[in-house]
Each structure stands twice: as C-alpha cells, then as structure tokens.
UniProtKB/TrEMBL annotation:
This is DUF6868 domain-containing protein. InterPro entries: DUF6868. Residues 3-81 form the DUF6868 domain. Pfam families: DUF6868. Keywords: Membrane, Transmembrane, Transmembrane helix. The chain crosses the membrane at residues 6-33, 54-76. The lineage of its organism: Bacteria, Pseudomonadati, Pseudomonadota, Gammaproteobacteria, Cellvibrionales. It comes from the Bacteria. The keyword Transmembrane helix applies.
Amino acid sequence: MEDLTTLTTFVGWCTVISIGLYLFSAIVLLICGEPVKTLHSRMASVPAEKLDEMYFTFLANFKLAFIMLNLVPYVALRLMQG
C-alpha cells in the first residue's frame, strides 16, 4: 500500500504542476497576446495571423495530454486506494 500511496502522491503533484503550466500559458497568451505574437513571429518566421490558430491548437493538445497522462491516472489511483 505504501508504493501505491507514493505513486498517487507523485501523479497528484504532476497533475498540479501541469495545471499550473496550462493556466500560466493560457493567461500569458490572454493578457500579453500581442507582444508574445510579435516575439514568436520573429523567432519562428511565422506570420502573426497564423499564430492564433497555432496557440489554440497548442492549448487544446496540452489540455488533452494533461487529461490523459495526469488527471485520469490520478483519479484511477485514488479509486484503487478506496
């Protein structure tokens, strides 16, 4: 049972960190959208008009990966502990 508790704690903290990174990314894009677009446009030579779609795709993929790789395992481990 100790190993299951340790694993649950580990996955729980991974979930918290992932939520923090997701929220940080979303808030930065929401609040500082234009400066970030300008920077990314210059760094990657991508037209600024295309970046909105790319940001949306990034956040959608991040959220999907977060749910599948962090949240679902955490919930499963919590259910296994009873």
